[in-house]
Amino acid sequence: MIFTATPVTSMCGTFSKFRFLLIFMLLLSAAGAGCSSMSPLMNRNAAADRAARAGGFEKSFIKTKSFTLTTYYRCAKPGDPLNLYIEGDGSAWLSRTRLSDDPTPRRPLVLELAGMDPAANVAYLSRPGQYTATDSSLCDPSYWSDKRFSSEVVDALNDAIEALRTRTSAIRINLIGYSGGAALAALIAAKRNDVVSLRTVAGNLDPEAVNRYHNVSPLNGSLNPMDAAVKLKGLPQRHFVGSKDAVIPPFVAQSFMKRAGDQDGGKITIVEGASHANGWRERWKSLLAIPF
Q: Which pTM does this prediction carry?
């Protein structure tokens, strides 16, 4: 609930400024008590909308068979390649043992990166449960936990990408995935014949190895992009790894690329000083310029 206060003038008669302020504060307090659980999501959606405006994006909702996905996109030259960014896992977990009830990212980092992309056609695609439409049905939390990389999620994102490709009349697609979005980008690239490049940022390209590294349970019901790595042999790729990333260590990208046939790690770029979430925005334009 949003309250808009208007200035109190002499026309208010016996309605003094003090009484107006008192009632307004009581209403605001009641609204805060009743809507406190909505406030963080409203803030996250507002931050995403601000980043989208800065990037010249239009907001849209794409309804697939299983999910309604939120997307932001711009199309300046229909028919040109589409640079498509896939969001990470977001706020999927509150702690190692407590699952979040809203996986919407607290900071729209990936949307900010997309907004900095100089390409004519750029799109951002959220994950199930993130930035949900007000009229969309509730999403099963398993789709941002055990089933975050399931075939249902891959198929839904693939359908959304097809819709965005149609809207932009793009024949070629460049996929960019962040963190868990990198896993999905790799899985999707292995399914499509119009993906001409793959970039990952702090990419979780081997969820099974990452979970073993952190001593957490495996993702039952999810696919592993490592199994699709061999299908991506020959696809132009660039994997950006933060030197200070304590979440996804460098060996993940190295193992993935060896499976994909790149034995010398020439398609991996170590970004000095970058952690899992920090140090990317400042360097993104220069990183995008690195050739495959």
A: 0.85
